[in-house]
Specification:
Distance between the termini of chain A: 104 Å
Oligomer: heterodimer
Largest sheet of chain B: 5 strands, parallel
Largest interface: A-B, 51 and 55 residues
Helix content of chain B: 40-55%
Largest sheet of chain A: 5 strands, parallel
Shape of chain B: globular
Chain lengths: 482, 468
């Protein structure tokens, strides 16, 4: 008898079947197939893959399987298999580890390994005379489908496995570990890696049948993704994920999550110069933090509100927010929050021309950064300190501070920190009378701004035009005979 | 029962073109005559050699049609001329991602000599090409092989094919041959004359008649993605088929070249026909009517007949429950390789026959999942626009649509075979029926329907008469 004769299925939902059904189908395919057949098994988690293969082996003890696991990038699968395929031929060949050959998800379909799959598809039977099962994560499968359509079209099946919620809870913990603000201390590569890992995990979660889905976990993952995208300055992606997270939080009536998502949106809107959206979001975030009694959250929201007030020129309002934020952080003994409040407060002070007070706060912030190992606080503190020194005409001290700032920002892959530091260095060069150097730094700053579509681009471009004009005038003046 | 399942699973291998045992002529259901008939008609009327272009979707049955043509050419019915086919699978010789016209020329010479020796026992002895082989053999033969003496044309096939996997040797061979390209093109015509003479002398398949001429068929030529020194994709395809068409049309013999559908449907498509000769695009087997989306019975019947040939001697009713079969046929969109793949998948979700609807659904769901994550973000709206457009045409030269043709999210059909014999057999396009069912697609369609009417759809104000 066929199993589940009466069960209902929506064939057009991308929901993944339960593992047992899918594994049984794959096992049947292996029993039915004679000679070369191309089979995909889509599985995002290495642990799950290992356990599935183990189950297959025990279910089909007579099936003689050769497993090849790549741990290095390869350019050509078929060539890599020549010489590795054992003779006499086994009943099936399993390949894993192809993801090492795909540097990033975005360009995966144009990598040489994909091109070579397409080109060599006719030669596979010469080398692999038995069913070939490629165990691949989703982004590799997509890359093959788009980049090697001929190869993909000869498939005899694509079996999908998604990790069940309970099996991945540990993984979620791991991905979610640490305060949100500590994310900023990851290098850009690490951030991108996290983005990919969270995306694939999220895809797994979402492909589970409705009754097995864990909506709260999906929400947390999406919030984390949104925050990472803000840090990578990809605001479009951040906006999309945060809005989905917000809807979900409201549906689930999860105030804590709503508060976190709203604050994230508020920060992003301020970066984008959407002041009224920013204000509405931050006020809502603050309201929720207070309602929940989340004092750390309240301190963070107050700092963010302070920054917004400064952007809007409401300085006195801003000072109050910063002071409140600092008080709460100190009360709680939350050093990271204290550091963040200090740096933000200091840069506001500098704007209202109180450099010595700003310097004092920044030195405290550097102390906090050292204790907590929080590198993005350290970067911001050096950057602002550079501005303080510049203001006071202490140019070589300013230069040193900017260099520290640049070093940390580029290590962290923080594009905002990077363009701002370069911009500041340009201003410093101009003060030093080196217009060529000033132009050079400004150009590099503009390159980054363009990439992240920063709202400051237009004003920086016009400053650059000024610089060019000044340089030309200076040149003309030098040509004039004395 | 397991034996029947096993036989069906392996008979429906999407990887292998239909043999004569499995071939079924879907002429009417495709809405056009079959390749064999079309080509033979051209052949009969042609006053000169023809360079016939053949195209179609990945997996729509091109290789099966070519194999069928090969059989038909040599076994022409009484009263018709027989032709001697030389079937060259370009993928046996060339690296799809690094090819040049000289590589193709060398493959043609080698395959021609090999086929004549294998099939007719005739050895082509052409001094010019033997000399060229002598110049290049050091690059791909071992020392032992070199010492064996002259490399005969008719025995060079497996050795020349080594070049496919040896980029260094390939470079060296090209360095020697490329400067001689135009002479080689002249000389190959002498070789073709020699071959022609040989097939006229030999007896055709029935042992009675002899062949009138040779026909060279280059299958998988459309798979070439990159010409050495050129950018991959459409640029390379243009270079090979358009910029260098004089090389492909300089050889004096009947040729069939397979060309990429993407190039045919690009803005440069019309030039192809001007430069070569007839172009024949193998459409999907029509399973729905254009516009109304009503089932096209003749197409469904063809697919049934085609499938029944692969069912281990069982009937369709024994293998599928009726709704399961209907489901598979509808959602394959008339794409034969998809259908084969679906049947294979369905076999793995059952223990016994007949296959029920739920197994057919699970089979299709594999492709649902693949499409739902792999379709690029910017394609959804375009897919939706095509679907709701009245004319079901794709905008000329829109590269995104060309990519969709390639990944089969859009399928091409031909509108012949209907009631109106005067209707033009023109191509039209439909969104893959599986993609049509996806949530993302439905959302995109809805979004377009919700758009506000644009200005030109509003009644225009009537302007006042100019006062005199």
């Amino acid at each position: 008898m066929n199993e589940e004769p009466s069960s209902q299925l929506d064939p057009f939902s991308p929901t993944v079947l339960d593992e047992t059904t899918e594994l049984r189908a794959l096992s049947r395919a292996l029993q039915l197939a004679k000679g070369f057949k191309l089979i995909f098994a889509r599985c995002n988690q290495a642990d799950q893959r290992r356990s599935l293969i183990q189950k297959l082996r025990s279910e089909l003890p007579s099936l003689n399987i050769q497993e090849i696991q790549f741990t290095q990038p390869i350019a050509h699968l078929l060539d890599a298999l020549r010489g590795q395929v054992e003779l006499p031929l086994r009943d099936a060949l399993f390949i894993a580890g192809l993801e090492y050959s795909f540097p990033s998800a975005a360009e995966a379909h144009v990598t040489s390994v994909v091109a070579n799959l397409n080109a060599s598809r006719n030669s596979f039977p010469e080398v692999v005379g038995c069913p070939l099962v490629l165990w691949v994560p989703e982004f590799v499968l997509n890359a093959i489908m788009l980049g090697a359509p001929d190869f993909f079209s000869i498939r005899s099946g694509v079996y999908f496995f998604a990790a069940a919620a309970r099996e991945t809870s540990e993984l979620v913990q791991n991905l979610m570990a640490g305060q949100e603000s500590s994310l900023n201390s990851l290098t850009s590569e690490e951030k991108t890696e996290r983005v990919n890992a969270i995306k694939s995990l999220l895809a797994d979660y979402e492909s589970l049948p409705a009754d097995k889905r864990d909506l709260a976990a999906e929400l947390r993952l999406r919030l984390r993704l949104g925050n990472l995208y803000i840090m990578l300055a990809d605001y479009e992606a951040a906006d999309a994920h945060l809005k989905q997270a917000l809807d979900r939080a409201k549906n689930l009536n999860d105030l804590e999550a709503e508060s976190a998502v709203t604050s994230g949106l508020g920060i992003m809107y301020r970066y984008l110069g959407r002041w009224s959206d920013a204000k509405a979001a931050l006020e809502r975030g603050l309201e929720l933090s207070r309602q929940l009694g989340d004092r750390s959250g309240e301190a963070a929201d107050l700092t963010n509100m302070g920054n917004l007030c400064v952007s809007l020129g409401e300085w006195e309002e801003g000072r109050k927010h910063f002071e409140q934020s600092l008080n709460i952080a100190r009360e709680l003994g939350d050093r990271v929050q204290e550091g963040l409040a200090l740096v933000n407060f200091a840069s506001a002070l500098l704007e209202v021309n109180e450099p010595s007070k700003a310097e004092e706060l920044l030195k405290k912030a550097l102390g906090v950064a050292k204790v907590t190992g929080h590198r993005s606080i350290e970067q911001a503190a050096f950057q602002t300190l550079g501005n303080v020194y510049g203001d006071e005409g202490r140019l070589s001290e300013a230069e040193n501070a900017y260099h520290m700032s640049w070093q940390i920002a580029s290590e962290l892959g923080d594009p905002v920190g990077m363009w701002k530091t370069l911009y500041n260095l340009s201003v410093l060069r101009e003060l030093q009378g080196d217009l060529d150097g000033a132009q050079d730094f400004m150009r590099r700053s503009i390159e980054i701004l363009k990439k992240i579509k920063g709202k400051e681009l237009d004003s920086v471009l016009s400053l650059y035009a000024d610089l060019e004009r000044k340089a030309k005038e200076q040149e003309e003046a030098q040509k004039q005979p004395a | 029962m397991v034996d029947a399942l096993r036989e069906i699973y392996n008979a429906c291998d999407p990887y292998v073109p239909a043999t004569s045992q499995y071939y079924y002529d879907c002429e009417e259901a495709r809405g056009s005559s079959g390749l064999a008939l079309e080509f033979q008609n051209h052949l009969r009327l042609a006053k000169d050699y023809i360079y016939f272009l053949f195209s179609g979707h990945i997996g729509c049955g091109k290789s099966s049609e070519l194999k069928h043509l090969e059989r038909s050419l040599i076994n022409a019915p009484a009263g018709r001329d027989c032709y001697f086919p030389i079937m060259l699978n370009v993928s046996d010789y060339l690296d799809d991602y690094d090819a040049t016209p000289t590589d193709i020329l060398l493959a043609i010479v080698t395959e021609l000599a090999d086929t004549l020796r294998e099939k007719l026992g005739v050895e082509l002895k052409d001094n010019y090409f033997v000399k060229r082989l002598d110049e290049i053999k050091q690059f791909f033969l071992s020392d032992v092989e070199i010492n064996e003496g002259e490399l005969a044309l008719g025995f060079a096939k497996t050795k020349i094919q080594r070049l496919k996997k040896d980029p260094t040797a390939r470079q060296k061979v090209r360095a020697v041959l490329e400067p001689k390209m135009s002479t080689m093109l002249d000389e190959i015509n002498t070789l073709l004359d020699e071959a022609r003479l040989a097939v006229k002398k030999a007896k055709a398949a029935d042992g009675q008649r002899s062949c009138t001429d040779i026909v060279l068929i280059l299958d998988n030529l459309e798979k070439i993605r990159k010409i050495a020194g050129m950018e991959e994709g459409l640029v390379s395809q243009r270079e090979l088929f358009l910029e260098r068409y004089t090389q492909l049309t300089a050889m004096k013999a009947h040729f069939i070249y397979t060309v990429p559908l993407r190039l045919v449907r690009s803005a440069d498509g019309p030039q192809l026909e001007q430069r070569y000769g007839p172009l024949f695009v193998l459409p999907m087997i029509k399973v729905i009517e254009r516009g109304t989306r009503q089932p096209f019975q003749s197409g469904m019947n063809s697919l049934r007949a085609l499938l029944e040939k692969r069912l281990a001697g069982l009937t369709l009713e024994q293998v599928f429950e009726p709704d399961a079969l209907n489901f598979l046929l509808t959602y394959c969109g008339g794409h034969v390789r998809n259908l084969m793949s679906f049947v294979q998948n369905a076999c793995t979700y059952v223990n016994t026959l007949p296959i029920p609807l739920i197994a057919a659904q699970k089979a299709i769901q594999q492709t649902v999942r693949a499409y739902s994550t792999a379709i690029p973000e910017n394609h959804w709206e375009k897919l939706a626009r095509l679907d709701i457009s009245g004319d079901q045409k794709i905008p000329n030269g829109d590269n995104d649509y060309l990519v969709m043709l390639e990944n089969l999210s859009v399928l091409e059909y031909i509108n012949g075979g209907g009631d109106n014999p005067f209707a033009l057999a023109e191509p039209w396009y439909a969104v893959n029926p599986i993609v049509r069912e996806l949530q993302r697609f439905k959302a995109a369609t809805q979004a377009i329907k919700n758009e506000k009417p644009s200005l030109d759809q509003l009644p225009l104000p009537i302007s006042a008469e100019a006062a005199s």
